[in-house]
Write a structure and sequence with these properties.
Blueprint (H helix, E strand, L loop, with lengths): L2 H9 L3 E4 L13 E9 L22 H14 L3 E5 L8 H6 L2 H9 L4 E2 L9 H8 L6 E2 L4 E2 L12 E6 L2 E9 L8 H4 L3 E2 L2 H15 L4 E7 L11 H6 L6 E3 L11 E4 L5 E5 L7 E10 L5 E5 L2 E2 L9
Parallel strand pairs: 2-3, 3-4, 4-5, 8-10, 10-11, 11-13
Antiparallel strand pairs: 1-15, 2-14, 6-9, 7-8, 12-13, 14-15, 14-16
Length: about 300
């Protein structure tokens, strides 16, 4: 799709994703609880906006503009989560010079809640990643990398639970197979486990044992592939207790989030917002007080340039 058409279709208004029996007129009633989920993926050390050089991405992105947008949203929305689906590192000289320190400090200042690990987050080696983790005032989750024999063994958890008002939200993470993608000396003794099996294991724990009202998977598997390879689509189809997959790795700009039926014939929402911090993903989840019915809307936002300027 041409960028101009994509900008117009993606940024004009929020699209209703799932409603079921949930009445739209109930959105603003006090018995409805709203959770605003904001997310990025594959930012790749893009600290500054793209230069005004006539390129198709000119003026888009930039940490400062993202921070301003986040501040504006938080002034309006009471319950928010800010998440990242990996590949925070690599792509500009900022990473080569600072080794990831700047990226983590900026994300901390923006008050990210949790992130997962992408393959490029190993580009300074697992020791380099561990060195920068104290700069990150947010958590990392991954449940299919066995890190027990590495320096990260107690620094990355399978999942994290958040309380937002009366809501209980579980967030787990999964990552792509590193062998053949990342030099072994960089990830060292990290062992790759089946992401679908592990995601289902921890999603069930979050939904049934921990009684979470909503389960989010931060995925760095990739949206979909032509070849037979594990992807977000495959994960959604084979899942049972995941409500939302926020993806990365394939740099996919989704015109609107995808919906896939899981093994229980329930909808799983998949969203991914490209790369380089060009777009901020936003999904608003509305829960009835009994938490049995919920509705989701989406309005992914391009950062730094209006739709009108691209007509």
């Amino acid at each position: 799709m041409k960028r101009r058409s994509f900008l117009k279709k993606t940024s004009l208004g929020a699209g209703l994703l799932t409603a079921g029996s949930f009445p739209l007129a109930a959105f603003d009633k006090p018995e409805v609880i709203k959770l605003t989920i904001l997310h990025t993926n594959d930012v790749h050390s893009r600290i500054e906006a793209f230069p005004m050089d006539g390129g198709r991405m000119q003026g888009l992105g930039g940490a400062a503009k993202r921070a301003t947008l986040l501040e504006q949203i938080r002034k309006v929305e009471k319950h928010t989560l800010l998440l990242d689906a990996g590949d925070i590192f690599q792509g500009t000289p900022y990473f080569n010079y600072f080794g990831g320190e700047l990226e983590f400090k900026l994300m901390s200042a923006m008050k990210y809640d949790v992130a997962t690990i992408g393959n490029h987050d190993f580009d300074a080696g697992i020791d380099g990643l561990a060195k920068q983790l104290p700069k990150a005032k947010f958590s990392f989750v991954n449940c299919n990398y066995d890190l027990s024999d590495t320096i990260l063994h107690d620094k990355v958890k399978p999942y994290k639970i958040f309380r937002k008002g009366d809501l209980k939200i579980g967030v787990l993470g999964v990552g792509i197979e590193l062998e053949g993608l990342v030099p072994e000396n960089l990830y060292q003794k990290t062992r790759y486990l089946d992401p679908i099996a592990k995601a289902n294991q921890y999603a069930a724990l979050l939904k049934h044992d921990e009684k979470c009202d909503y389960v989010i998977c931060l995925s760095h598997l990739g949206y979909k592939y032509k070849e037979d390879k594990i992807s977000d689509i495959a994960l959604a189809k084979q899942s049972e207790d995941i409500d939302l997959i926020l993806g990365g790795h394939t740099h996919t700009f989704l015109e609107q989030p995808d919906q896939i039926r899981n093994k229980k014939d329930r909808p799983v929402i998949i969203n991914q917002v490209g790369w380089a911090g060009i777009m901020l993903g936003r999904l608003d989840v509305y829960f009835e007080r009994n938490f049995k019915d919920k509705c989701v809307t989406c309005n992914n936002i391009f950062i730094g340039q209006s739709v009108e300027s691209n007509k």
